[in-house]
Amino acid sequence: MSRTVSGARVLITGAAQGLGRLYAERAVAEGAAAVILWDRDSAALAATTAALVQRAAAGTQIAPYVVDISDLGAIAQTAQRVRTEVGDPDVVINNAGIARAALFWDHSNGEDTRATMQINGLAPMYITREFLPAMLTDASRESRIVNIASAAGVLNAPQLSVYAASKAAVIAWSDTLRLELVTEGYGHVKVTTVCPSYISTGMVAGLDHVPRSNWLMPRLAPAYVVDRVWRAMLAGSPMLVLPWTVGLARALRSVLPRPVLDALASGVGPSSARRRR
């Protein structure tokens, strides 16, 4: 893919606010042919759409869709509408997610555990499966899939057990998909798995008294994360871990004694709260 998404169709989930909106603004600024916005918040989506239309060049289509990605049927129906009304995307950014901080035994099975696994873990698979066949069939067309996971998927953090499980699932699936594409000769479709530490967005800010951060898991500025993800996506980088200390922490897991690892992990989880984004 070139150094921009100019002329490409870009689909972003969780696009109405936070990082999703920043990705959409980046696509508009680079002259994407279409910026396809998925979000379940109809009011926020309408506001974001209006703002993007004001910024978009004449050749850029802004295509908003209200969709709850925890619903497999809604994903399939909306994907069909996208194919009919806009065309298959060249870039899919699986950004939408939810986070609920609580001790595992305080999570409800339905509202907490099932919803977190469906939105964070299963929805990226369902959405990618909808649009991947068209990407595979046209080898002349560079395609990108970006899956936003989390450092929580590779590093333990108290009160984030379900969230961590959902993100670990994304990491395992996403990088395996990348490997399958490489081994099966579909090198024009590249998958980037993103594992950032805490990002200063509404999802984090709503947690009581942090989430706490330390030198291993510092807070990151949204604009910085979006820029790094965007550059990794264009380059087709397999994995992006932010910041470098998260990669160090992963390496330390294999050499440090368990009590030391537990002590480090206990300092990076949230205190107590629940928050959805």
From TrEMBL:
GO terms for molecular function: oxidoreductase activity, acting on the CH-OH group of donors, NAD or NADP as acceptor. InterPro entries: NAD(P)-bd_dom_sf, Sc_DH/Rdtase_CS, SDR_fam. The keyword Amino-acid biosynthesis does not apply. Keywords: Oxidoreductase. Gene3D superfamilies: NAD(P)-binding Rossmann-like Domain (3.40.50.720). It comes from the Bacteria. Pfam families: adh_short. Belongs to the short-chain dehydrogenases/reductases (SDR) family. This is SDR family NAD(P)-dependent oxidoreductase. It comes from Cryobacterium frigoriphilum.
